[in-house]
Every structure is written in C-alpha cells, then in structure tokens.
Design goal:
Number of helices of chain B: 22
Helix content of chain B: over 70%
Strand content of chain A: under 5%
Structural class of chain B: mainly alpha
Radius of gyration of chain A: 31 Å
Helix content of chain A: over 70%
Low-confidence stretches of chain B: none
Number of strands of chain A: 2
Oligomer: heterotetramer
Largest sheet of chain B: 2 strands, antiparallel
Order of helices and strands of chain A: HHEEHHHHHHHHHHHHHHHHHHHHHHH
Largest interface: A-B, 53 and 59 residues
Radius of gyration of chain B: 21 Å
Chains: A mainly alpha, B mainly alpha, C mainly alpha, D mainly alpha
Strand order of the largest sheet of chain B: 1-2
Largest sheet of chain A: 2 strands, antiparallel
Order of helices and strands of chain B: HHEEHHHHHHHHHHHHHHHHHHHH
Distance between the termini of chain B: 39 Å
Number of strands of chain B: 2
Low-confidence stretches of chain A: none
C-alpha cells in the first residue's frame, strides 16, 4: 500500500470540510440546501479516514514498519528543511484509529443532535475541519507540522465553543479557551525553536530529533521539556491553565464530547508521549508533570463533587482523568497513559453524548437537580450511561478499570506513593461524583411529572450503543498479565512502555483490590446521599468548592484586569500624555516663541533703525574682537 | 534593455493620471482607468517575476544620467527582496480597488494612482537621491488623500503626520548628501548611486553613527518604531479606507525595505553592532503596542496599534542577522500587508455601511454578513499567526531568528502568539459576533466584486501558510546574498 | 573689440531707453496701462534677446570691459553678468505679465509705473554689471529709488505709503553704510574698482588690513540689509506686506538676485583673501536668520505675510551657501545662483497667484479665506500647491533641487551643522506651506462663490512657471534634446568661471 | 597731514553718529530725513578729505555723485513726506504702524 495514502487520512476530512464550507455559503447566500447534503459529506469523511487508517494498521500489524510519507518541502531556510511529512508509527496509528472511530460516531450523533440548527452545514464544516486538524496533529512527522494541527484544533475549539455566538458569554468562553491555549502554545513554540536550534541540524522530524537530542546539553533539554509541557498543560487543561475547559461547555454537546473530552484535550498527553525521547532524559521534569497531573486530578475531582451543571461535572471529570494520564506519562509509562486516553475517549464520549441526549430530551436543561427520574424516559441512555459511569469509576471489567489500574500501579511501582495516594483518593471521589450525577439524573424524584420529554432520534441512540459496547470491550485490549491477559495495547505501544518498573504479583493484586474498593466506597457514599434524591430539597450551594476555589476571579484580577489597566495606561497616559504631548508641546512652544518674536515687528521705523544699529554694534564688537 | 519595464511600471500610473486630468472623465471612468492600470501593472509585475533570474543580484537594471554635474542617476533595479514587495503591491492594489469600487471621486483615484507610482519608484530606486525623490514625492498624494477624504480631525492629523514624516526623511536627506560628499572627497567624482556609495571607506566611527541614525530615524518614523509612533494612531483612525490601506499595508513596509536596501549595505558594521538593540526595540514595540491595542474603542485605532505591533516584530526579524529572521520578516511583510490591508478594507466597508468604527457600536455583524465575517476571520487569523496562514510561518521564522541572535529575545518574542490573539479575538467578539441592540441591519454582505477582490488575498494567505517554500525560493538567493556580506563582517 | 561693445551694452541700453520712453509716453493720455505694459514688455524682450545673443554668441565664457576708454573699468560684461541679466529680465517679464491684471484692476496705477519699473530693472541689471563700488551704489540707488516709489504708488492706501516710507528711511540708512564702507576701502586701496581692490588685498595678504575689512563689513551690512538677513530683517515683513502684490513679487524674487549678483562678484573677486574673516559672523547670522524667519513665518495668519516671512528663511538658506563660498567657491556660488532661480520662480508664482485670487468683494488675505479654495478654483489651487511644494523643497519641484545644491555645498564645505539647521527650518516650513494646501483642499467649498477672472496672459504665465518648476525638479532625463536642470547649474558654473578671466 | 586727515575723519564720524542717533531718536519725519542727509554728507566729508590726502580727484567726483544721488533721494523723500502728511495730518513717524504684526493678526 503506497504511503501517499497516509496524507489522505488528513486530506479527506479537510476536503470534505472545504466542500462543506462552500456548500454552506451557497446554502445561505443562494439556495437553501437540505441538511442531508451536509450530512453526506460530514459523516462519510471520518469513516473514510478510519478505513484508510485501518488499512495501514493492518499493514503495520503484518510488517511492523513505520510508514513515512513526505508530501513536499514545507519550508527551507538556510540549511534547515522542514517537510510536510506524515508518519504512521504504532503510537500515531493507534491514536488515529480511535480518533476517527469515536469521531465518526460523534459525527453521527451530532447529525441527530444538531438537526434543528440553522448552521447545520457550518457545524459540520467545523467538525470536519477539526477532525482534519486533529489527524494532522497526530500524523505529523515533525513538531512544526504537529503544531499546525495543534493550532487548528485550537481554532476549531474556539469556533465551536462560540458556536452560539449571539450570546456573548459563549464567545467569551471561546476566547478564554483560545487564549489559555495560546499561553500553552507559547511554551510549545519556545520548545520547538529551542529544539530546532540545538537538535535540528540533521532534520527536524521526530526520528532525527530523537537521534540528535542526546547531543544537546541536559539543561537545554530540561528547558525544552518544561516548555513543551506548558503547551501540553494548555491544551489538556491542567493546573494552572485549566480554567477554559469548564467554560468550554458552552458549545453544543457533541463538541464537548468530541473535542473537550475524547480527542483534542488528550493531545497534550499525546504530545508528551510523542516527545518521550526528551522526557526520558529528564526524569525530574517527568516527576513534576506527574505531580501536576495528580494535583489537577484531585483538584478537578474536588470541584466536580459540588457542581450542578451536568456538562460542567463531566468537564471537571475530564480534567481529572487527564490528570491521571499525566501521572502516567510523567512517570514514563507512556503506553499506560495512552491506553487511558484510548479508553477514556470511549467512555467520556459516551458520557457526554448520554448527557447530551438527556439535555436534548429535557429541552436543553443542564442542571442535574432539575432532571431526575430519567431512567424511565430514556432507557437506552440510562443503560449506556451506566456502563460509562461504571467504566470511569473503575469497576471491572469495564475499560476504565484496566487503564486506571495500570496508572496507579505504575505510580506505586515508581515509588511515588504520594502520587499513588492522590490517585486512589481521586478514584474515590470520581466514583462519588459520577454516581452522584448518575443517581440524581436517573433516579432523582422529580415532582414536576408533567414535563414533555423529547423523543430521541436513532442517530443519537445508535452511537451511544456502539460506544457503550466499546467502553466494555476496549478494556480487554489492556488486560494485565495478572489476570491472564496479554495486554495487547501495551505490546503495540512497546516502544512507549516503561520497562524499568517491576512489581511482584502479590502487590499488584493488592493494589487492584484497593482500586476496586475505592470505587465501591465512592459509589456507596453517592448511593447513600443521592439515591432517589428528592429534587425539592436542593441544597444551597456556596463555599470554596462550589465557587471553584475562586480561581477564575483571581485570574481575572491578576491577569485580565491588570492588563486592561496597563493597556489604558499605555494608550491614554504614556502615548498621549507623555510621548505625543512632548512633540505637540514642542511645536506649540515653538509657536508661542514665534508670537514672542513677532512682537519685534511693531512697525515702528525708529525701532527698526535701532535694531539695525544694535546689529551693527554687535558686528562692530565682533570686528573689534577679531581685529585686535 | 530595450523595453525598460521598471520605468513603465513606475510611470504608467502617472501617465494615466495626466490623461485623466486632461480629459473630462468622471469618477466612474477614473475608477475604471485606475483599475485597468493596476491590472496592467500586475501583468507587468508578473512578467518581471517570470523573467527574474534565480540569483541574489540586481536585475532589470536601468541606468541613466539625471543630474550629471552631481552624479545623480536615474538608476533602477530589482532584487529578490524588492521583487517580492513588488508582487505584493501589484497583487494587493487591484484587489483593493475592487473593494473601494463605489462612492469615490475622481481626485481619490488620481491620488491612488500617484501613490502607486511613488511606491514602486521608491522600491526600484538604486540611487540615494532618486530614492529620496520618490520617498518624499509619495507623501503628497497620501497627504491629499487623507486630508481630502478622511474623517475626524483630519486636517490637523494630516499636517501632523506630514510634518512628522518629512522631519524624519529630511534627516535622511542630509545623511544622503553627506554620503555623496564623502564619496566625492574620496573618489573625486560625484555619485549618489548605491553601487558606488557602498564603496566609501573614509567614514569615521562617529560619522557613521550619525549617518546610521539619520537613516534610521526616517525609517523608524515611517515604520513606526517606538517612540515615533504617535502620529500613526490618529492618522490611521482619520484616514479614508484607501489611504489607511496603503499606509498600513505598503508604505509602512517601505520603511523596513529602506533599512534592508540602504542601511544594511551602507553601514554593515553598525548594523551588526546595533542589531541587538533594534531586535529588543522591535520586541518591545510588539508587546507595548499589543497591550495598548487591547483597550482601544475605535476599531481603526486598534488595528493601528496592531499594525505597529507587527511592524516592530518585522524589525526584530530584519535585525536578527540570520536567514530565518530575514526571511521571516519578509514573509511577515507580505502576510501583514495582506491581512492588515484587507482588514482595513473590511473595516472601511463596515464604516461605510454603518457610519461607525466604534467597537461598542458594532456587534451582530456575523449574522448579517457571513461572507464578510469569513474573510474577516481569515485575515484575523493571519494577524494572530495561526498555523496554516502565512502569519504563522513568518512569526515562527522571526522567533527563530531572534532566538538565533539571543535566546532570551527569542523567548520573549514568542509572546507574539499571545499578544495579537488577546485583543483581536476580544475585538472580534464585540464587533463582529454577539447580538447587540445596536442597529447593524444596514450592514451589507460582500458583493461578488468584493469577494473577487478579497479571494486572492485570502487564498494567498492560506497558500503561503500551507506551502511557504514555493513562495520562498525566488528570494532565497537574495537573502543569502545579504547575509553573506553581513556574516563576513560579523566574523571579522 | 570696439565693435562688440555696443552689442554687449545693448541690453542695458534698451532697458534704459525703454524707461525713458515710457516716461515720455506717460504724458499721453491715449496710452493705456495695457499698452504701456506691452511697450515695456517689448523693451524687455528686446533686451532679453540681445542679452541671450551675447551669452550664446560666445560659446566660450567671456569677459570684457566695454568702452574701456569712457567707462574705464566701471562696467564689465561677462558670462556672469549675462546670466544674471537674463534671469533678471526674465523675472521682470514674468512679473509684468502676471501683474498686468492687477495693475489694470487698480486704478491708481499709471503708465509712469512702467517707467519706474524699467528703471528699477535697469538698476538691477547695472548692479550685476558693475565693476566698481560707487557705480554699484548708484545702480543700487536707481533700483531702490524706483522701488520706493513703486511701493508707494497707490498713495491713497495707508499701508502702501507707510511701507514706502519705512523702506526709504531704512534703505537709505543701509545705503549710507555702503558708502561708508566704500570710503574706508578707498582710504586703504585708493581705488574703488573691484579687480584692483582684490589685487591690493592679494598683495598685502598676511598683513592685517583692518580698514579694508571694516569697509568690507560695512558693505556686507548693506548686503545683509537688502537680502533681509538677521538682524536687518525687520523692514522686510512690513514693506513686502505693504507693497502691491506685483511689486512684492518683483522685490522678493528679482531684487535679491541682483543684490546677490553684485555681492558674489565683490566677495569672490575682491575679498577672496580675507573673506574667511566673516565666517563666524555669518555663521551666527545664518542661524539667527533661519530661526527668526521660521518663528515669524509659523505664526502668520495672512498668506502674504507668511510668504514674506518665509522669504527670510530662504535668505537663510542662501546664506548657508554664501558662507561655504570661502571653502568651495564654485559649487557654493553656483548653488546660490541656482537657488536664486528656484526661489524666484516659486516666489513669483506664489505672489502672482495670490494677486490673482483676491476679488473686488473679497480680499483673500488669511489662511481661513482659502478654505475650500481648491473646489472652486481647481487649477489655481493646484498651481499654488505646486509653488508651496517648491518653496518647501519637496521632490519633483525645482525647490528640491535648489535645496539639494545648497545643502550639498554646505556639507562639502564642512558646514554640516548649518545644513542640519537648514533642514530643521525646512521641516518647520513644511508646516506653514502645507497648511495652505491643506486649507485649500481639505475644507468643503465656501457658500459664496464669486467669479474671479483667471485668464489672459497672466494665467498662461503662471501656468508656464508651474511647468518650469516641475520641469526644473524632474530634469531632462526623458527629453534629451531639451535643456534640463543640468543646464542651469552648468550655466551657473560657467558664469562663475568667467569672473576670473582677467 | 595724517593728523589733519584723522581730524577730518573724526569729524565726519561724529556727524555720522549724530545722524544715526537722529534717525533713531527723532519722531519727526523731517528731522529723520535731515539726519540721513547728515550721514550722507559725513561720508562725503570723508571722501573729500581722502581726496586731499591722496591728492586725487577721484574722491571729489565720488562725492559729487553722492550728492546727486542724495538729491534724487531727497526728491522721493520730500514727496513722500507730503503724502504722509496728507494721510495723517501729522509728521510723527511713530503713528504710522498699521503694518505691525499686532494689527496684522
């Protein structure tokens, strides 16, 4: 199979996006097109990409070779060349497969979810464009090309968050996301450029970088590692750049599912795994990453326990799960982290889509305490959500259990018991807040029984079912040896496997037990507090946690307002009152001196003669001095 | 050369102006004539581009005596650097004319044509006096166009900008004369031709420093660099669309061009010596103007600051003394010219339709004019430097260049990714998106002509972002040519 | 060659005969103003043609003392004087052509005016021909006295009379210093002939000659007064403002040329060995002149006064080159000559056009009166703008080339600091010149639109001047067989060389 | 001989200075005119004494020329005085000041 097809994985959704965009313009300007036209393009492209990726996957299963394709020389300055290159290795093809698959399902889901929206075509244009960018990000063979995709997904994220742009809150959320991401990009660019300078002499693709990074001084590598991680923090919503993620839920629910849960936000994890050759040299930085991940996980989980907005809870849970992933990649267990990305994509997408289904059913109601009793109204959603919730809580044999277990295991095995402890604590809280959500939404007693429940279309329900199946099955790709599995995922990603960790089977089984117990404890507390919760007794919300530790407000004061004030100061004070008034002052001073001088022009002949005489006298004095 | 194509490019608009003035042509006829002229110049420029040889040296040279007694030559030539700016001008101006299609008077078009002549003349001149000649002459139609068709306190601001820029260029004038006299004293013949005056070796250090800053002041005011920027804000805000388009997208770049064309070969030692300061000045401008832009309420003022911010960044690239920075600066010249020019044109349309350029009066335009919004977005993304647009390529290269000069400069300059994004997106939210109670129902979407005008710009912005190398190969030898000289001196 | 002498003197003679003829003609009431003007123009044309013939007939530079038996060496005819006379005659013709309408419109002018006009032209021409100090004084007085009367010709107007009076008192005062200087010089050298003073100074170089220097200084004072350099500039604003516009144009443009013509000869030939004595003095005077002129010009509200005040600045530019004569005689002198031509064209055009736009109902005096002028009278506004640009020294006008020569000469002579100060004065001047353009173009047209005729010879002449200004700024690159800017400066160089043929 | 020349020139300079002071200090236009004449004649005196000193005719001729010029000047001056007097009915030179900057702006 020729390698140029690799580029078509990206090109198919991209072309489809362009066609969709043009069609959309045609539709709004000239003649209205039906939604089906858009759906045809929008829905087929992810699956075509998936099919191509699948072909490559099969090929790679057979010969195990990395596929590399250079489309053209992207930029050549001086002796450096950067190609528009695509690379399918085990990691990227793995990512591609589930991104296209889950992405495709979410597309299908969105076709139902968005069917009444005016900008149907526009939505799919964005969605396809997002997919193309995401695939470029994953398939890129060099950091620069990756960055193109990286920013592309950021842009789509912005566009989709502010999709309902008429409400300024939504646009503001979009802006926040974009700016926070850009802070991360700053790190990425700095890292990229440093790498370019110190290790780019023999080419700037990952393979060459991997070969030449060894020659770079270790301080520089440290610095690259930190800068790269800043990029990852921005994209993957970790402390301190996480603030955008909860607000990002302003976009339509499929967006939250696809971008802010399943794919884009995991790009940070992917990036760290991609640059494993950097982080392998600097384990200390890795540890910092792991700790940031751990704290993010705990922090987000804490906030999630008090939230009422269903999407916000899921958003915080995403952040929390991303924290887990960073624990893994920080500790060098990249395959474990990626595996969690993989399982998380399924169950989190499912959770969001389920939440979206509930929201649609209830006419865009997002407060869980206004839902309740959805079990009987939406049984399919109930079951699929149950699977997903169990999965995220870490109950075997659902997928989340396997991936989370591995993460905690590697934390324990690395000797970072604090990380492990935080992980377990977070696991308890995860189980708690997820089941809190679950119980309230599906079992809560809602007195207002007269509400009208919207019938959910098939296009919404089918993806739910498929993903539910996926949430169960995917876990079995990573069954640990302890349980008699072969851990296929880990094998496939062997290059990214942390080989230094060893732990005996007894400890491993004990840890596994602890994990399950932790989840059960969380579920139990949630059950106690919220099973058949009476919606009339909604607690009053206040306190630190409900207010998200006031981080948004602190940021507002620290950055937004101070910069605004600085801006006004520069534009109004420095520019106008100092620099410009200096100039204008000079000229007006000049003119006022002119008025002073002009007094000499008093039209008095005698005075003029006198001035002349003065001049002559001065010249005479000059003569006397000179001739002496 | 039998057919002096560069002269034709310069003087064709002037010729058309004379014809227009002689004949009783109305506004429409003048506009059509101007448009046809710009298209013809585009064709001529394409001819130049296609016949341009792949080398770093001057081509299409025309050398005639002008004022023989003082060795002033009518000397034209073009190298890769000017070629790319020529192509930019030739492409942008017809596109812009399409957007300025309606509601302009004959005087407007006459001035636009004159400006075009001045710009190309400045670009081709290879003689210091000839360069100064066009440099100053260009100012007049700009003066007229801002003063006659501007808004607000236009008379005051027009005079202010004219006196200010002439002040800068007059200092350059003195320096040019000084150089000419020095050449005469050293070689015994008069010449102001660039190829001759670079041979001067008799300057003392203090002389060189004076001359260097004499030139730099002229260019710094035109660009503008901090702290010579105060004219810019008012002028951009008061200018008519066409004027601000030309000012921002082309004339400001000529300041940068002047640095590369004249300051660099004339004072290579000082260029290297002061390069770090200018790199930092550029970065300072980038951040300073970027922050200042944030709270502007007038959308044109905001773009003015944004423009200044980017030009600071271009200067950073020019002074970074390596191929990345130089290439990046050249790329940013193009990217910024296209994006800012198009943005100003779009804002001009907005102002024309809504009679307001105040951000708080706008909002809800996206709903009214989706195609407008699409183009606005593309230009905005280019300004922000999003990958996939040429804005990113240039920013990346300049950061790389700055890093090559000083690691810290590179890191600080990387803040560019934040600076533009913050104010641009905020502006976009308030001016274009949202749904406000302000009456924006008068906003018309782009018509076909305007789409045809903007589409090439948008296409190029994206094409240059996706496949930058294709646009670089012709200028690569020129950049190398400049650098070889610079690096040799740096080494010694 | 005796036979040539009459030809050499023909221009002077024609003008003189013209002046006398006009005086006689003025007694006939049948001779209208228009006729008078045409007669005088005829004389001037004949003079100009004969003058050009002189210049052209000798392809080489030439120098001769006509009728040496009668005049001794009082009068010299050389390329230098020929060149200057041509410019002066050309200026006189232009002034008359432009001023004709003004003179016709204002009833106070009679045919005698032309007689005085021709006498003043004669005085000026004589001034560039003289080779002797007392003759120089007489020439100066011929020109000045006719000028005094011309200024006060409209004796019903207070300001005309006042201007005339002021000029008369101060002008005579300055003239006396000329005589005083001459007497000192005579006391030392026993001669007043220009070449001989120079020889004397040359022979005694090294020994200090205080009296010669003092005498020279006194003559310089008169010179500085006449060109309105600081601190002898006060009169100029009042007098030029008070004079009728054509006379103002004539004085501002032409008189200065004649004065420079005389003083350049004097300084270059006679004071060659001692002229560096004045360098420091002139340095200060130049700076002060530039500063004073700029201060004064920037605050003016009346266009005429602004033009006059700015003429002080232009004097400053000329002085910059005048100082440089000490070091680089040739290029400085030729740059002065060129700048004089450039200034003369621009100023005569500017004053001329201002004289054309004042209508009976409305005198256009201040800047504000010009609001929206361009929308009503586009051609006049365009021309006036070009004159302003030329005065400001913007490229593509002759003023730019003039400034180029002046500043190049200054830098060549090592007076870079003066060039820089000149540049500062230039961008200040941009303010007040561009203000007029801005006001004409950037305001909506006024409500009341009165019809002011702009036709006939005057308008054509101004159009011609406009073309000359632009042509002088662009040069002859395109039309190779037509004389270009180079021609003017080459001519100036040749005339410079002719000073030293002995 | 030289002594007497010095005396003559000193006298001439004194006259000259008196004239100069007269121009500056006197308001009456007539007196101003007379002062100017005085200055001219002071110069004449210098020339004539120089003529005696050098035993040359040239300065004498010069002084005659100067007198001629002075006469022409006198004609203009006196007629102007008449005009001035007619306009303002006064010979005070200070009252003619409509061309001052103050009245211009």
């Amino acid at each position: 199979m020729s390698s140029f097809l690799l580029s078509w994985i990206v090109l198919v959704p991209l072309l489809s996006a362009i066609i969709l965009g043009l069609l959309y313009l045609y539709s709004i300007k000239i003649k209205k097109l039906s939604n089906k036209v858009f759906a045809i393009f929008g829905l087929t492209s992810p699956f075509i990409s998936f099919a191509i990726a699948g072909l490559f996957f099969i090929q790679m299963l057979q010969d195990g070779k990395t596929i590399h394709y250079e489309a053209y020389k992207w930029l050549g300055v001086g002796s450096y060349n950067v190609s528009m290159g695509f690379m399918a290795d085990n990691l990227s093809i793995f990512m591609i497969l589930f991104v296209t698959f889950v992405g495709g399902l979410i597309h299908v889901y969105a076709s139902g979810y968005m069917k009444d929206d005016e900008g149907y075509g526009k939505f799919f244009f964005y969605f396809n464009f997002f997919l193309a960018s995401m695939l470029l990000l994953v398939l890129a063979d060099s950091p620069i090309i990756m960055f193109i995709g990286w920013e592309g997904v950021g842009l789509c994220s912005y566009l989709l968050i502010s999709y309902y742009y008429k409400d300024s809150e939504n646009v503001l959320a979009g802006n926040k996301a974009f700016i926070a991401n850009r802070v991360g990009d700053f790190g990425f660019i700095v890292a990229m450029i440093t790498m370019f300078y110190y290790a780019g002499a023999n080419g700037f693709d990952y393979v060459s970088l991997q070969n030449s990074i060894g020659n770079v001084p270790i301080e520089i590598v440290t610095y690259i590692g930190i800068a790269l991680f800043i990029g990852a923090v921005g994209k993957s919503a970790q402390i301190p750049l996480y603030v955008w993620l909860p607000d990002a839920m302003a976009g339509p629910t499929p967006v939250s599912a696809l971008i802010h849960a399943a794919t884009m936000v995991t790009a940070g994890v992917y990036m760290v795994a991609r640059f494993h050759f950097v982080y392998e040299l600097i384990p200390n930085v890795g540890l910092v990453i792991a700790y940031i991940g751990a704290f993010s996980a705990l922090f987000a989980a804490t906030i999630a326990t008090k939230q009422t907005d269903i999407k916000k809870i899921l958003a915080y849970s995403t952040m929390s799960q991303l924290g887990y992933m960073f624990i893994a990649v920080g500790l060098g267990s990249y395959s474990v982290g990626i595996f969690h990305v993989f399982t998380h994509a399924f169950f989190k997408a499912l959770l969001f889509m389920g939440a979206g289904a509930v929201i649609v059913a209830l006419h865009h109601e997002q407060n869980i305490f206004k839902m309740g009793g959805m079990k009987k109204h939406t049984p399919v959603v109930f079951f699929t959500m149950l699977i997903a919730t169990l999965s995220i809580a870490g109950i075997p044999p659902f997928s989340g259990f396997f991936s989370k277990d591995e993460i905690l295991l590697s934390a324990f095995a690395s000797g970072e018991y604090l990380l492990w402890g935080i992980g377990v604590l977070t696991a308890i809280m995860t189980a708690y807040y997820m089941f809190r959500l679950f119980f309230v939404v599906f079992f809560g007693k809602n007195s207002s029984e007269d509400r009208h429940i919207v019938e959910l279309p098939k296009s919404i329900l089918i993806p739910l079912v498929i993903l539910a199946v996926g949430s169960i099955l995917t876990g079995f790709l990573g069954v640990p040896e302890l349980l008699g599995g072969t851990n296929l995922a880990s094998q496939w990603l062997s290059e990214w496997k942390n080989t230094s960790l060893h732990i005996d089977h007894t400890t491993e089984s004990v840890l596994m037990l602890i994990n399950v117990l932790a989840a059960l404890v969380g579920i139990f507390i949630a059950y106690k507090k919220f099973y058949k919760y009476d919606m009339t007794k909604v607690p009053k919300f206040s306190g630190m946690i409900w207010n998200k530790f006031y981080i948004d407000e602190i940021y507002d004061v620290l950055f937004v307002r101070s910069i605004k004030r600085l801006s006004s100061f520069i534009a109004m004070e420095i520019d106008i009152k100092i620099i410009d008034s200096l100039l204008m002052g000079l000229s007006s001073k000049f003119i006022s001196i002119g008025h002073l001088v002009a007094r000499v022009q008093n039209a008095n002949t005698r005075f003029y003669a006198f001035v002349m005489l003065c001049g002559i006298s001065l010249i005479s004095i000059y003569l006397i001095i000179e001739l002496r | 050369m039998d057919f002096s194509i560069l002269s034709v490019i310069i003087f064709l608009p002037i010729f058309v102006v004379f014809v227009l003035l002689a004949l009783p042509v109305g506004a429409k006829g003048s506009r059509n004539a101007a448009f046809v002229t710009s298209i013809m110049i585009f064709i001529l420029a394409m001819t130049v581009y296609l016949n341009f040889e792949f080398s770093g040296y001057m081509q299409f040279i025309e050398h005639h005596e002008w004022i023989t007694s003082y060795g002033i030559y009518y000397s034209l030539g073009i190298d890769g650097f000017s070629l790319i700016i020529l192509m930019l001008i030739a492409t942008l101006i017809p596109c812009a004319f399409l957007l300025l299609w309606n509601g302009r008077t004959k005087a407007y078009w006459v001035n636009m044509l004159l400006i075009q002549s001045g710009i190309t003349g400045t670009l081709f001149a290879q003689d210091l006096i000839l360069f100064y000649f066009f440099w100053e002459a260009m100012l007049l139609p700009v003066f007229m166009i801002i003063g006659m068709f501007g808004t607000g306190n236009r008379v005051f601001s027009t005079i202010k900008v004219t006196v200010y820029t002439i002040m800068g260029s007059l200092f350059m004038f003195i320096c040019i004369l000084y150089i000419g006299v020095s050449f005469f004293e050293e070689f015994g013949v008069w010449s102001f031709a660039l190829q001759d005056v670079v041979k001067i070796s008799s300057f003392t250090r203090s002389e060189e420093i004076w001359l260097f800053f004499g030139f730099m002041i002229a260019f710094a005011i035109k660009i503008p660099l901090f702290p010579f920027h105060t004219w810019l804000i008012q002028t951009y805000s008061n200018s008519p669309t066409g004027g601000v388009f030309l000012l921002s997208s082309i004339m400001a770049k000529l300041g940068v061009y002047g640095i590369v064309r004249f300051v660099m070969p004339l004072f290579p030692d000082l260029y290297i010596e002061f390069a770090p300061y200018f790199v930092w000045l550029g970065i300072f401008g980038l951040i300073y103007f970027g922050i200042a832009a944030l709270m502007q309420t007038d959308i044109k003022k905001m773009f003015a600051y944004s423009s200044a911010s980017h030009l600071g960044f271009i200067v950073t690239g020019i002074f970074s003394l390596n191929a990345y920075g130089m290439t990046g600066a050249l790329f940013l010249i193009i990217a910024h010219a296209m994006a800012t020019g198009a943005l100003f044109l779009l804002v001009g349309k907005m102002e024309y339709n809504l009679k307001s350029k105040n951000i708080s009066d706008l909002g809800g335009i996206a709903k009214q004019a989706p195609i407008f919004t699409l183009f606005f977005m593309i230009m905005l993304l280019c300004i922000v430097g999003l990958p996939g647009t040429n804005g990113f390529v240039s920013e990346f290269l300049i950061i790389l260049g700055a890093f090559g000069m000083q690691a810290s400069a590179g890191i600080v300059s990387a803040l560019t990714v934040l600076v533009a994004a913050s104010f641009m997106f905020w502006m976009f939210q308030r001016a274009i998106l949202q749904d406000t109670d302000n009456d924006t129902s008068n906003m018309k979407d782009l018509d076909l002509k305007e789409i045809i005008g903007l589409a090439p710009i948008a296409f190029l912005i994206i094409a240059m972002g996706v496949y930058p190398d294709w646009f670089l190969f012709k200028i690569e030898p020129t950049i190398q040519h400049y650098l070889v000289d610079i690096l040799q001196i740096k080494a010694s | 060659m005796e036979s040539n002498d009459i030809v050499y003197l023909l221009p002077l003679l024609v003008v003189m005969i013209g002046a006398i003829t006009m005086m006689l003609l003025s007694t006939f009431s049948s001779v209208s103003i228009k006729k008078g003007a045409y007669y005088s123009l005829m004389f001037l044309f004949v003079a100009l043609i004969s003058n050009l013939y002189n210049l052209n007939s000798s392809s080489e530079i030439y120098s001769s003392y006509p009728y040496i038996g009668i005049f001794k060496k009082m009068i010299i005819v050389d390329t230098y004087s020929g060149y200057f006379s041509s410019i002066l005659l050309f200026g006189a013709i232009l002034t008359l052509l432009i001023g004709l309408q003004y003179l016709e419109k204002h009833k106070e002018f009679t045919v005698e005016f032309f007689s005085l006009f021709l006498f003043s032209v004669l005085g000026m021409m004589l001034l560039v021909h003289v080779n002797e100090l007392i003759t120089g004084f007489i020439a100066l007085e011929i020109a000045s006295l006719s000028m005094y009367v011309m200024i006060g010709f409209q004796k019903v107007l207070d300001k005309r009379v006042e201007a005339s009076y002021r000029y008369l008192v101060l002008g005579s005062l300055a003239g006396i210093f000329f005589l005083l200087g001459t007497s000192f010089i005579y006391a030392v050298t026993q001669t007043t002939t220009i070449g001989e003073i120079g020889e004397f100074a040359q022979n005694y170089v090294g020994t200090d000659m205080p009296l010669l220097i003092i005498g020279g200084t006194m003559i310089l004072i008169t010179f500085l007064f006449k060109i309105a350099a600081f601190p002898f500039q006060n009169w100029v604003l009042d007098v030029y403002d008070g004079a009728p516009l054509p006379v103002t144009a004539f004085m501002a443009a032409t008189f200065k040329i004649a004065i420079f013509g005389f003083v350049l000869r004097l300084v270059l030939v006679d004071f060659d060995s001692i002229r560096d004595f004045w360098d420091d003095m002139l340095f200060v005077i130049t700076i002060a002149t530039l500063a004073y002129g700029s201060f004064l010009a920037i605050i003016q509200t009346s266009i005429k006064r602004m033009l006059v005040a700015s003429s002080i600045v232009h004097t400053g530019y000329l002085l910059i080159a005048f100082i440089s004569i000490g070091i680089i005689g040739e290029s400085a002198a030729s740059s002065i000559i060129f700048y004089l031509v450039a200034y003369f064209l621009s100023a005569i055009g500017a004053f001329g056009i201002v004289s054309f736009i004042s209508s009976d109902e409305r005198l256009r005096i201040t800047y504000d009166d010009f609001k929206g002028f361009a929308h009503v009278y586009p051609y006049r506004a365009a021309m006036l703008s070009i004159f302003m640009l030329s005065l400001a020294g913007i490229p593509s006008t002759i003023g730019f080339i003039g400034k180029f020569y002046i500043f190049t000469a200054a830098i060549e002579a090592g007076y870079t600091i003066l060039a820089v100060i000149g540049i500062i004065a230039t961008f200040i001047s941009v303010y007040y010149y561009f203000k007029l353009i801005a006001i004409m173009y950037f305001y909506p047209s006024p409500k009341i639109v009165e019809d002011v005729p702009f036709s006939g010879v005057g308008s054509i002449t101004i159009g011609l001047i406009t073309i000359l200004i632009v042509w002088g700024g662009i040069g002859n690159t395109l039309i190779s067989y037509f004389p270009g800017v180079d021609f003017l400066i080459d001519m100036a160089r040749l005339s410079y060389e002719s000073l030293f043929i002995r | 001989m030289a002594d007497s020349l010095l005396s003559y020139i000193s006298l001439a300079m004194i006259l000259f200075s008196i004239g100069l002071l007269g121009v500056i200090s006197r308001k009456n236009i007539f007196i101003v005119y007379m002062s100017i004449e005085l200055m001219l004649n002071a110069v004449n005196l210098i020339f004539i004494s120089l003529g005696r000193y050098y035993e040359s005719m040239e300065p004498q001729v010069i002084s005659i020329l100067i007198i001629a010029v002075a006469a022409a000047e006198a004609a203009v001056f006196l007629s102007l005085i008449v005009v001035l007097y007619r306009r303002k009915r006064s010979l005070d030179s200070d009252i003619f000041n409509i061309l001052s900057q103050k009245s211009a702006s």
